[in-house]
């Protein structure tokens, strides 16, 4: 049975969400503080966590960061804060999805099912995941996701990204990237790689002037800078 940990300091919310989850045949454990959530998380090992942002001791972002130190268990954040900054902070701390209060319990249940289904699909398909899931590359379907939003790349952009991510500790010269992505007989200019890199950064980096994933190694070429999720 799939296990869900529900964390919120409002008992009414915990009771309602729990009732809906039990009706859908989920096994449920509850916690009312961040400290209690962490204790039960490591003791009970849930398949997914529904986590309130505003808790009386450790807030949801801090709980998420601690869980993300050694676990990729999906986390859905609940919050009354609907600002873009609040949502971005939650996602950057490692949350997989975000639900703003007040909410329908049915919506929360469907979000849980969607996230669990996505995790199952990723486990079945070879997926490269970096920076706590902020960047994901599905190798078989050749799809790229940034913060779980699919990014449209050209074939060449995808080939460059997938090649560098597969060998993420290696420095690539422009010539090597051409050979690996376009073929050794390709007669194009090696500076064309710079244009593809520029476009790739624009699409996957939060700030393409301070890239996290595609790093320039001056005088040598490029390397992949993402931290691989285990």
From TrEMBL:
Describe the task this protein carries out.
May play the central regulatory role in sporulation. It may be an element of the effector pathway responsible for the activation of sporulation genes in response to nutritional stress. Spo0A may act in concert with spo0H (a sigma factor) to control the expression of some genes that are critical to the sporulation process.
**DNA-binding residues:** 125-226
What SMART domains does the record tag this protein with?
REC, Trans_reg_C
Name this polypeptide is given? Stage 0 sporulation protein A homolog
| Record keywords, A-Z | DNA-binding, Phosphoprotein, Transcription, Transcription regulation, Two-component regulatory system
Listed SUPFAM superfamilies: CheY-like
Keyword match Ribonucleoprotein? no
Every copy of the Response regulatory domain together lies at: 3-116
Domain called OmpR/PhoB-type: residue spans: 125-226
GO molecular function terms attached to this record = phosphorelay response regulator activity; transcription cis-regulatory region binding
The answer to whether the entry has keyword Chaperone is no
Recorded hits in InterPro entries, A to Z, give:
CheY-like_superfamily, OmpR/PhoB-type_DNA-bd, Sig_transdc_resp-reg_receiver, WalR-like, WH-like_DNA-bd_sf
* Modification sites for 4-aspartylphosphate: 52
Task: Look up the record and report any one GO term of the cellular component aspect.
Answer: protein-DNA complex
Q: Which Pfam families match?
A: Response_reg, Trans_reg_C
GO biological process, any? regulation of DNA-templated transcription
- PROSITE patterns for the chain: OMPR_PHOB, RESPONSE_REGULATORY
Which superkingdom does the taxonomy of this entry point to?
A: Bacteria
């Amino acid at each position: 049975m799939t296990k869900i940990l529900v964390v919120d300091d409002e008992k009414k919310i915990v009771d309602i969400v729990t009732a809906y989850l039990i009706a859908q045949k989920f096994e449920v454990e509850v916690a009312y503080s961040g400290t209690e959530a962490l204790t039960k998380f490591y003791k009970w090992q849930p398949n997914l966590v529904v986590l309130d942002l505003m808790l009386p001791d450790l807030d949801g972002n801090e709980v998420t960061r601690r869980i993300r130190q050694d676990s990729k268990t999906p986390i859905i954040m609940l919050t009354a804060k609907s600002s873009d900054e609040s949502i971005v902070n939650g996602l950057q701390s490692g949350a997989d999805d975000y639900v703003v209060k007040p909410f329908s319990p049915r919506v929360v249940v469907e979000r849980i099912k969607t996230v669990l289904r996505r995790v199952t699909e990723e486990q079945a398909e070879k997926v490269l995941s970096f920076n706590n899931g902020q960047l994901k590359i599905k190798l078989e379907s050749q799809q790229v996701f940034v913060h779980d939003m699919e990014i449209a790349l050209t074939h060449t952009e995808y080939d460059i990204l997938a090649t560098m991510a597969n060998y993420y500790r290696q420095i690539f010269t422009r010539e090597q990237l051409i050979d690996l992505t376009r073929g050794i007989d390709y007669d194009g200019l090696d500076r064309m790689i710079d244009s593809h890199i520029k476009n790739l950064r624009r699409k996957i980096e939060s700030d393409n002037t301070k890239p996290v994933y595609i790093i320039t190694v001056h005088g040598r070429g490029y390397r992949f800078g993402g931290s691989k999720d285990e």
